[in-house]
Amino acid sequence: MRMRRTAVLIACTTALAVAATACSGANTSQRKGIVTDYQVTPTSPPAKGGLDSVTWSLYAEPYTLDYALAYDYPPNTVLANVCEQLMRVTPDHRIEPGLAVKYDRPDPRTLVYTLRPGVRFHDGTTMTADDVVASLKRQMEPAVGSAWASAFKNVETIEKTGPLEVTLRLSRPDVLLHEMMAASPGTIESAAYLKKAGKDYGTAKGGVNCTGPFALDEWSRGDSVTLKAFPGYWDRSLAPKTKSVRFTFIEDPAARANAFLSGTADGGYMVPSSALAQLRDSGKGKVYFGPNTTTAGLAVLDLKGTLGDVRVRRALSMALDRKEIVKAAAGGVGTPAKAPAARGAWALVPDRTDKYFDALPEPEYDIAAAKKLVRGAGAEGRKVTLVTSTLAPEISVVANAVQGAGRQIGLDVRLKSVSPDAYSSIFVDPSARAGLDLVITNGYDNTPDPLEFYQLLRTGDFGNYGNYSNPEFDAAFDRANAEPDPGKRADLTAELQRIALRDLPSIPVYEAPYSVFLGNRVTGAPTGIAQLYYPWAASIGAAK
Question: pTM for this structure?
Answer without folding.
Answer: 0.88
